[in-house]
Amino acid sequence: MDYDAAHRGVTDYFRSHGLPWGQDELGTSPAILIIDMAYGWTDPQYPGGSARMSRAVDRIAELLEVARPLGVPIVYTTSPRPYALWGDSSLDPDVRPKLEGEHRRSKIDARIPPAPEDRVIYKTGASAFFCTDTFRYLTSLGIDTLLITGCVTSACVRASVVDAHCYGFKNLLVRDCIDDRSEIEHEWHIRDLSRWGQVRGIDEALAYLRGVCASD
Hints:
single chain, alpha/beta, Rossmann fold, six-stranded parallel sheet
């Protein structure tokens, strides 16, 4: 399938009829949103996992290597885990390993581990914003632009991008850092999501970060 031609047909229709498509400008106060890059999605041993995510994980690691020294806020999302697994809980040492094994799918992939200053959001819906404090946290930092990464393009990424747009954020979808279990789903949705933001490669995303963030 020629995805680019199909997408041009859609965007040409919108623009020829005066309908809005995309965002022209990015802001100057960015954060990175890493959606669901936990083992349940990145490890193919799980039903929802796929080896296709490895390439995106590696590129996210490259993004973080540049972003962290620049002081860019970083937010991860994943699925819920039992209260007993929170770090400050006390739990029978014989029980904890069993629970941690059962709920490994909610743990962020060790190739891109959260730093102590990062925020990890445990969500119950597709969107990073649904019934979470993501919006309140980002606005408390004065964030106006989100660099969107993670999985999967057709579901949780899509829902998060739409909600971010509705909340007034500018979206930069880092194409190399996003993927789906299905190539077809990914290729169509990553193009369609440009109606709510800009889709750019990692080199462009890094240039944007360096341009708006002053290193220490």
